TrEMBL record:
<dbReference type="GO" id="GO:0043165">
    <property type="term" value="P:Gram-negative-bacterium-type cell outer membrane assembly"/>
</dbReference>
<comment type="similarity">
    <text>Belongs to the LptA family.</text>
</comment>
<dbReference type="GO" id="GO:0030288">
    <property type="term" value="C:outer membrane-bounded periplasmic space"/>
</dbReference>
<keyword id="KW-0732">Signal</keyword>
<dbReference type="GO" id="GO:0001530">
    <property type="term" value="F:lipopolysaccharide binding"/>
</dbReference>
<keyword id="KW-0574">Periplasm</keyword>
<dbReference type="InterPro" id="IPR014340">
    <property type="entry name" value="LptA"/>
</dbReference>
<dbReference type="GO" id="GO:0015920">
    <property type="term" value="P:lipopolysaccharide transport"/>
</dbReference>
<dbReference type="GO" id="GO:0009279">
    <property type="term" value="C:cell outer membrane"/>
</dbReference>
<dbReference type="InterPro" id="IPR005653">
    <property type="entry name" value="OstA-like_N"/>
</dbReference>
<protein>
    <recommendedName>
        <fullName>Lipopolysaccharide export system protein LptA</fullName>
    </recommendedName>
</protein>
<comment type="function">
    <text>Involved in the assembly of lipopolysaccharide (LPS). Required for the translocation of LPS from the inner membrane to the outer membrane. May form a bridge between the inner membrane and the outer membrane, via interactions with LptC and LptD, thereby facilitating LPS transfer across the periplasm.</text>
</comment>
<keyword id="KW-0813">Transport</keyword>
<comment type="subunit">
    <text>Component of the lipopolysaccharide transport and assembly complex.</text>
</comment>
<dbReference type="Pfam" id="PF03968">
    <property type="entry name" value="LptD_N"/>
</dbReference>
<dbReference type="InterPro" id="IPR052037">
    <property type="entry name" value="LPS_export_LptA"/>
</dbReference>
<feature type="signal peptide">
    <location>
        <begin position="1"/>
        <end position="23"/>
    </location>
</feature>
Amino acid sequence: MKSATNKYLLITALMMTSVSALALKNDTNQPIDIVSDNQSLDMENSVVTFTNNVVIKQGSILIKANKVIITRPPEKSNKKETVEAFGNPVTFHQLLDDGKPVDGKASKVHYDLGAEFLTLTGNAELKQLDSKINSEKITYDVKKQQLKANGSNKSRVKTVLIPTQLNKK
C-alpha cells in the first residue's frame, strides 16, 4: 500500500511540474509533501483522494486545493494517470529557472499524464509578475509547450503584458 501511495504522490508532483516546462530543474528531485485533513485510498478502483485543506509542496512548487483526486487506469490499458484538483480556487505557485514566479488559479485543474495535457477551468488565471491571462478555460499542451485560453458567452479572454518585466531576469 505504501508503494501505491508513493506512486500517486509522484503523479501529483508530475502534474505540478508540468505547469511550466521552464520550472526549476531541481523541483522534480525534491521530496513531495502532501498534507490534508483527510485522505482515502480506493485500491479496487485505483483512486486516492485528498480532501480539505490540501497543501502540496515540492521544491518551489506550492499547490493548495480543497480536493485532489488521482486516478490510475487498469495496468494493461496503456493509459496513464489523471489528476483532478478542485478548490475555491485551486492555487499554485512555482519559480522558473530564471527566478521569475509563476502563479495560477482556477476552480478546477485537470491533468492527463498520458496526453501531457493540463486544463484549468473556471475563472482561470496564469500570472507572472504583473503580466497575466484570465479566461474561463486555459489549456497547456506540455509536449508542444502550447497554451490556449478560451472565453465563454459571459466573459472574454483578458491578457495584460508588462514587457519590461517579461524581459528582465
